[in-house]
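does this look right to u?? adenosine-5'-triphosphate version
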Amino acid sequence: MITRMSHLFLRTLRDDPADAEVASHKLLVRAGYVRRVAPGVYSWLPLGLRVLREVERVVREEMDAIGGQEILLPALLPRDPYETTNRWTEYGDGLFRLQDRKGGDYLLGPTHEELFALTVKGEYNSYKDFPVTLYQMQTKYRDEERPRAGILRGREFVMKDSYSFDLTDEGLAESYRAHRDAYERMFQRLGVRYVIVSATSGAMGGSASEEFLAESEVGEDTYVRCVESGYAANVEAVETLAPEPTPIDGLPEAKIHDTPGTPTIEALVEWANRAGLGRTITGADTLKNIIVKIRQPGGEWELLAIGIPGDREVDDKRLEASLEPAEVAMLMDEDFEKYPFLAKGYIGPKALLDNDVRYLVDPRVVDGTAWITGADVVGKHYVDLVAGRDFTPDGTIEAAEVRDGDPSPDGAGPLVSARGIEIGHVFQLGRKYTDAFAVDVLGENGKPVRPTMGSYGVGVSRLVAVIAEQHHDDKGLRWPAEVTPFDVHLVIANKDEAAREGAETLAVELDKVGIEVLIDDRKASPGVKFKDSELIGVPLVVVVGRGYSDGKVEVRDRFTGESREVPTDVALAEIRAAVRG
Ligand code: ATP
Ligand code: MG
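got this back:
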């Protein structure tokens, strides 16, 4: 079928949408691919829907190739299964909840582990049925706190989610590997530059987990890598390389000093260097104690103290990931009033431990390290308070920021950071969900076995934005061949009747050999048409223009910007070669 611009439901815009900050958002709206309906809720117009379908096709082909079987579960789900796994509560405000006319609770599915486990339980009951991998291409709903950048972070979005069911851990490892490989092929075909990072497991519970991050300055995920070893990890997943504990014997005794006006690390370090302690003090020699309150799902708020070296800040995302699924909140002034033992600016380990506040420290705070830290009285600090001698924390926590230059956890060299957008996630769930629903099948020896699960997601609609983000220039989009809405954008830039007919004939010929053509047959100036073709971003633009009377058409490559004249009689063959190449 040939698509005509004169009929296409498309209006391109000259100006960027007011709410758009990132290039893909601006361009996808300006080029008429998507339209905003509500925050994080978008309509797909013809061009956008074509790209979305192409991404789906590639994802589907790679899923089918590893033996995945496509099904489609409802997006509208009853509360019950999510109550069983406690995710009705754990998901918090992120869940769209609704009621039917009888007052029954429902939700719009944010992800479907529960339903897949129940579906397999309903159909399969023998070890002979396994392994099995099921997937769906489905609209998901999450009431994101900050919907962002158009379809990049929507509240309604398309995800490919798959779930593997195996009887053994080795089987699960194999299914995981198959998905990981399939994702690599997928993203390569889609023309996405990406890295694979080890990830925290998040609210799902379970073990091995990796994320695929598209490299992008506008990404919300920060990851670090070590050039020397190839180690790469989400910042949330970085485990601090802790020093070895050192002997405590012979360390100087802890002493309380008057340190008036030193509630900040800066002031404290200045004091310490004036106090003549016999060594140069930096923020890294101080231990600052931060108090937050946390609440386990369905529980009460409780205090938590976190001790980290004073030269570092708490990284909220790392803190939250470490405490998940508990909620974290900052302490308010009225909270401080409730706990008079908290001397703001001078909080030390002693008062925390004496008052049964759970106290977790940075992994660098190993036994034998000596710290300058609060003495729990305004204007006083300890010097040489030694971990393992003067205080024993309740454990460690990964909450401090990771910095460029920090040692890689594998000890191979320094870490450098970069930003990315999560496009896929592979995850060995284990038996969390099969346990929750008692999914048992008859084993070979007649005894019941419980399958183990993997769950794997790809952000299908997000990928449209990610590809746009990685493939554009200041004039517009530049789609990779695999996902372009059309193979060829044929622009008629000549009012002459013969040229117009020649273009129509060429379009028919291209169509006959299976090349998808968008023909700009509008009554508009060549300038307007060229601008639109650059904005829309079909990789191959063929112009039937002034040269037509000399027997030539122009073939432009939207990627390289190169253009060449081609004799009309070989145009078909040349275009075919360019499209297939
Ligand atoms: P993020 O950290 O970006 O919120 P997530 O870890 O919550 O993502 P998963 O639950 O692993 O996401 O979902 C699988 C995939 O679905 C993600 O890798 C991502 O590509 C996509 N995805 C998740 N949330 C959104 C969203 N709000 N809009 C578009 N795509 C999304
Ligand atoms: Mg994820």
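The first helix runs from residue 23 to 30. idk if thats expected tbh
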